[in-house]
Specification:
Layout (H helix, E strand, L loop, with lengths): L2 E7 L2 H7 L3 H8 L3 E7 L12 E2 L9 E2 L1 H9 L6 E11 L2 H8 L3 E6 L4 E2 L1 H6 L3 E4 L9 H12 L32 E2 L2 E2 L9 H19 L11 H16 L15
Parallel strand pairs: 1-2, 1-6, 4-7, 5-6, 5-8
Antiparallel strand pairs: 3-4, 9-10
Helix pairs in contact: 1-6, 4-6, 7-8
């Protein structure tokens, strides 16, 4: 099964350029992903191909007009969910990327200027979606990022399907630290456990590092994570150690000082 993403935009070439490399390119070459930009300007009715106008009620900025956007959307065959990319939307997540990877059709409406006429959201029965808590000049780059996130999760795109199993945000945990050659660089060594070839110890170390990193940087994610009793015991130990604070007899390298 392949995924078709229809992108309503006033800058179709921007989306194409952003998806010309990486996993999205591989997915497209394999026939697993089809990206279909739709130029909203093709559905305007004036000689200037106008897609925006000043907002009712006054204020700075311009708003994308409802009519050309709705015409562009209605030119498409029915199917799949529609999302309006907007700074007001709910955050895009790995979970949603995985949902898209298993879908047949997704339609993205790229906002520009100050935003899109609110009636677009209502008439298209769309959900507003955001890349994060910041504002972009338009939705095209956000759309490309979201498509890239979904493309790498389509079965058959990654060379080794296991490579994404412990990525950040899989299982609502952040990823573990990675290392490669050389073993030592400017006094910093690769952790010994990774050099020993003991697969069970490596797996346990990586799991603990995922838990520790998530606990330190994004503790809110742990509430939805699938944690084992051993995971919870490790997190409880981290919490106890944090409350106890550093041992004053420990040196900077974690070794006992000589008395």
């Amino acid at each position: 099964m392949s995924l078709e993403v229809r992108i309503l935009t006033v800058f179709p070439e921007l989306v194409e350029r952003a998806l010309a490399e990486g996993m999205a390119r591989i997915a497209r070459e394999q026939g697993l992903l089809e990206v279909r930009p739709v130029n909203i300007r093709d559905f305007t009715t004036d000689v200037h191909r106008t897609t925006d106008d000043s907002p009712y009620g006054g204020g700075a900025g311009m708003v994308m007009m409802v009519e050309p956007v709705v015409r562009a959307w209605r030119s498409l065959s029915p199917g799949g969910r529609t999302y309006v990319l907007s700074a007001k939307g709910r955050p895009f997540t790995q979970e949603l990327a995985r949902t898209w990877a298993g879908a047949e059709t997704v339609t993205l409406v790229c906002g520009r200027y100050k935003g899109v006429d609110e009636r677009v959201v209502d008439l298209l029965d769309a959900e507003e979606l955001s890349l994060g808590d910041f504002v972009l000049s338009g939705g095209e780059l956000a759309a490309a990022v979201m498509i890239d996130a979904a493309a790498r999760l389509i079965p058959g795109v990654l060379g080794d399907p296991r490579s994404g199993a412990e990525d950040s945000h899989e299982d609502r945990l952040l990823g573990y630290p990675d290392y490669t050659r050389p073993e030592e660089f400017e006094g910093r060594r690769v952790p010994e456990v990774l050099l020993g070839g003991h697969h069970a110890r490596i797996a346990a170390w990586r799991r603990e590092r995922r838990l520790e990193t998530t606990w330190k940087r994004r503790p809110e994610l742990l509430g939805g994570a699938d944690l084992t009793p051993k995971d919870r015991e490790f997190l409880d130990r981290l919490s106890r150690d944090s409350e106890r604070g550093p041992d004053l007899q420990d040196g900077p390298a974690g070794q006992r000082k000589e008395s």
